[in-house]
Write a structure and sequence with these properties.
Elements: H1 2-6, H2 8-25, H3 30-50, H4 52-56, E1 62-69, E2 72-77, H5 80-107, H6 112-131, H7 135-153, H8 159-189, H9 207-222, H10 233-236, H11 242-251, H12 253-269, H13 271-277, H14 281-299, H15 304-325, H16 328-359, H17 370-373, H18 375-388, H19 395-409, H20 413-439, H21 453-471, H22 479-495
Antiparallel strand pairs: 1-2
Helix pairs in contact: 2-3, 2-6, 3-5, 3-6, 5-6, 5-11, 5-16, 5-21, 5-22, 6-7, 7-8, 8-9, 9-12, 11-16, 12-13, 12-15, 14-15, 14-20, 15-16, 15-19, 15-20, 16-18, 16-19, 16-21, 16-22, 18-20, 18-21, 19-20, 19-21
């Protein structure tokens, strides 16, 4: 029993890898195949949740798999930052798995065995990223996530899908190369690769070396985080099935990018070193530009998923901005926005998928009056839209409130203006969709007909989560406490 308890971080990673094998073996029997998917999702979440009490109690459960060379090991360790990401990803995987079953069956999609197996490997990679104890372990799972997601992006096998998959690999593997070079550089100058609050780089690191390292890391994780101009793979990947879009935008891939930036900023460089060097100012400016440009580009998109894709690019840079400002409120807001954005954005993609599964409509201009036919789906879309715009009492308001406080603490009123303007732009590109759905007349949608309950129930639950995170931010999973604890552990080192 003691061995099992000590191995929970490893088991949380391995359970969906085992499921991927069983999914392939049972590919001829859809019910059994999907049963393995659901069992793995629930088991993974249970294992991750079982670690929450340890972390809140001040412990960091971990396991070393093997030593690669003296002082470098493949190892897992669970801290507040890691378990917050892992809880969000594993909980939403359960709902995404149920939704995927309804979506794939409703549309009669092919290659479902490959789809569910790839999904399982992606979630193993995500938990490995969350629990990585050092840069070596992080980059292994980070690249594993890139490769595992590729079959999902090209799932339809059309020329457009294959071209999008090629762009996806070029961008993300190039970013992975930059990250690998950065890790090798850190290994050459730092005493360890293990993540430590306050950073691991020597205090004597020169300003030029620091700047070059930061560029490599920002490129390495910024590709997945959708920072402009590294973002164009993300709208192109919308050719994938909608549950994959939800995975890309809410659960795993892009969140691995912003999570990686938090690891690098707080646990490799250290807030104190970055503040003294001024190296984070260009990154903050890049994030601010991305927020505004992505919001403007979203307004120009008629395709619903592409509009949501540009919205994601903008909201990821909210998180980037919070992280690089390195003030307590900015970190709280940025890390909490990882969770609140996940709940709200997965709701919007679930709604888009439900609309497509029922009507085969993809463009916003084709959705006049659809709220009368699908009131539950479009009602959920409206609630999540309010959250993304920062309207209380949804979770998006709370994370943006702390981000705004962080800009003031950093004496950056221009960045506060960016947050306010982007909130208005969020409303400008999302609210017209809801208006069209409920207040424009059309003879196309006259009969009540929601999508499969396997799709509608998950989107209702993610809507409730979006609301609950604003009213009870610390209920059940303590996400706000985990964000706060991470901010304190990283920034108190800078204060000292």
């Amino acid at each position: 029993m003691e061995f099992v308890l000590a191995s929970r971080p490893l088991l949380a990673v391995l359970v969906s890898l085992l499921a991927a094998i069983l999914i392939v073996v049972c590919g001829r029997w859809p019910n059994l195949r999907e049963g393995w998917t659901l069992l793995a999702a629930v088991t993974k979440f249970g294992l991750v949740f079982s670690l929450l009490g340890d972390v809140l109690g001040g412990r960091t459960p971990g396991v070393t798999l093997f030593e690669v060379s003296p002082g470098i090991a493949l190892a897992l360790r669970v801290d507040a930052l890691g378990i917050s990401f892992a809880l969000s990803a594993s909980l939403l995987w359960i709902l995404t798995s149920v939704y995927s079953i309804g979506y794939m069956r409703s549309l009669g999609e092919g290659h479902q065995t490959r789809y569910f197996a790839s999904f399982a490997i992606c979630l193993s990679s995500t938990i490995g990223i969350a629990f990585a104890a050092n840069l070596l372990t992080f980059i292994i799972f980070y690249e594993m996530l890139t490769i595992a997601t590729y079959p999902l992006v090209v799932h339809k096998g059309t020329p457009e899908a294959l071209a999008s998959g090629q762009k996806y690999l070029v961008y993300l593997l190039t970013g992975g190369g930059a990250l690998l070079l950065a890790v090798a550089w850190v290994r050459n100058i730092a005493p360890t690769l293990d993540f430590q609050p306050g950073g691991i780089l020597p205090a004597a690191t020169g300003a030029t070396e620091l700047a070059l390292l930061l560029i490599l890391f920002v490129v390495g994780v910024g590709v997945k985080a959708g920072l402009m101009p590294l973002h164009s793979w993300l709208p192109a990947a919308m050719v994938a099935p909608t549950p994959v879009s939800a995975l890309l935008h809410a659960v795993a891939v892009v969140k691995a990018g912003v999570f990686g930036l938090a690891r690098v900023t707080g646990f490799v460089f250290g807030a104190d070193m970055l503040q003294r060097s001024g190296a984070i100012n260009p990154v903050a400016a890049l994030a601010a530009a991305t927020i505004l440009l992505a919001s403007l580009l979203a307004m120009a998109q008629d395709n619903l998923k592409r509009r949501l894709a540009y919205s994601t690019i903008g909201h990821l840079s909210y998180i980037v901005l919070g992280i690089v400002l390195v003030t307590p409120d900015a970190w709280r807001g940025g890390l909490f926005h990882i969770v609140t954005h996940a709940a709200m954005k997965i709701t919007l993609f679930f709604c888009a998928g439900a609309i497509y599964a029922k009507t085969h409509r993809e463009n916003i201009s084709e959705l006049d009056g659809i709220g009368k036919q699908m009131p539950v789906t479009l009602g959920a879309f409206g609630v999540a839209s309010l959250g993304l715009a920062g309207v209380p009492p949804l979770g998006g308001f709370l994370s943006k409130w702390f981000l705004a406080g962080g800009t003031l603490a950093a004496e950056q009123p221009a960045l506060l203006a960016v947050l306010i303007i982007s909130g208005l732009l969020n409303a400008a590109y999302l609210f017209p969709i809801v208006y069209r759905a409920f207040f424009r007349h059309s003879d196309q949608f006259t009969k009540f007909a929601e999508a499969s309950p396997l799709m509608v129930v998950p989107l209702c639950l993610t809507t409730l989560l979006s609301v609950g995170l604003g009213i009870f931010p610390d209920a059940f999973f303590k996400w706000f406490s985990l964000a706060n604890e991470t901010a304190i552990s990283v920034l108190q080192v800078a204060v000292k």
